[in-house]
Design goal:
Blueprint lengths: L12 E4 L8 H7 L6 E4 L2 E4 L18 E2 L5 E6 L13 H20 L3 E9 L10 E11 L3 E12 L4 E14 L12 E2 L3 H30 L1
Bound molecules: coenzyme A.
């Protein structure tokens, strides 16, 4: 998945933000009584909406691969006055939150349980987004390591009066799947089924190697000073 071409996948479930996955807080509380993370609502602390993860941590090679397409997510949201910055354009942080949300859902779908954001290491803002436009955020899992997943996201704005669409941002995020004790747990390999998915997977492997080399070089430098 190249940052310039976007790469969040082409289709998949359309989820209107605010009604994510159709799960109300009450439903979430019932469905995940064993979940370890909690969110606060109306003064009560209730279980967050994720299913408990597997209690064991198998080797990745033991896990059944999942198609990249199965993780595809699309969020659509209208940009309103409250999303604007002092220039009257949509605030970059609003887009970043949508990107993190869409990517988090894609990671969850692939991992089959709670995933947390570890890094957002590429995030471009190519064109401004205007109040009154809709923003469509497409995300899908590009590849996995052992416990981590790289998700690629493509953002487009649409002038709903004319239907003109503009590619405004691309991003790559890394998530880690956690077990019930909050420890990293193994995730299934990604099955890339199309040329494009194979390209995204290949590029994700290059980025993963780069990230690891970068982290190790910094750690080595800090050990020496
Ligand atoms: C996610 C977390 C549990 C990982 O802990 P950790 O001690 O680094 O765990 P590990 O060293 O076992 O690394 C786990 C995986 O994360 C990857 N990872 C760790 N730091 C990373 C970084 N900065 N960037 C990319 N990947 C990273 C590792 O490469 C490893 O991947 P792999 O298993 O696929 O090889 C910990 O960093 C954490 O709790 N972070 C906070 C997450 C959070 O609160 N996010 C915001 C809200 S969702």
């Amino acid at each position: 998945m190249g940052a310039d071409d976007g790469d969040g996948g082409d289709s998949g479930a359309v989820i209107l933000v605010g009604a994510v996955a159709g799960s109300s807080l009450e439903h979430a509380a019932r469905a995940s009584a064993k979940a370890t993370a909690h969110i606060s609502a109306g003064g009560r602390r209730i279980a967050a909406c994720y299913r408990p993860a597997a209690a064991y941590n198998p080797d990745v090679s033991d896990l059944e691969p999942k198609p990249a397409s199965a993780s595809q997510v699309t969020l659509v949201q209208l940009m309103e006055i409250t999303d604007a910055n002092i220039a009257g354009l949509v605030h970059g942080g609003v887009i970043m939150k949508l990107v993190d949300t869409a990517a988090g859902i894609a990671a969850f779908k692939h991992a089959g349980g709670l995933c947390v954001t570890v890094s957002m290491d590429e995030m471009s803002f190519l064109e401004p987004v205007h109040v009154g436009d809709t923003v469509t955020v497409e995300a899908s899992v590009n590849d996995v390591g052992r416990t981590s997943l790289e998700v690629g996201v493509r953002v487009e704005s649409e002038d709903i009066r004319t239907g003109e669409r503009t590619h405004t941002s691309s991003a790559y995020l890394v998530f880690v799947a956690l077990d019930e004790e909050g420890r990293p747990r193994s995730v299934p390999p990604v099955l890339a089924e199309t040329e494009e998915e194979l390209r995204r997977q290949h590029e994700a492997k290059i980025r993963r190697e780069t990230r690891i080399a970068h982290r190790e070089a910094i750690e080595e430098l800090r050990r020496r000073v």
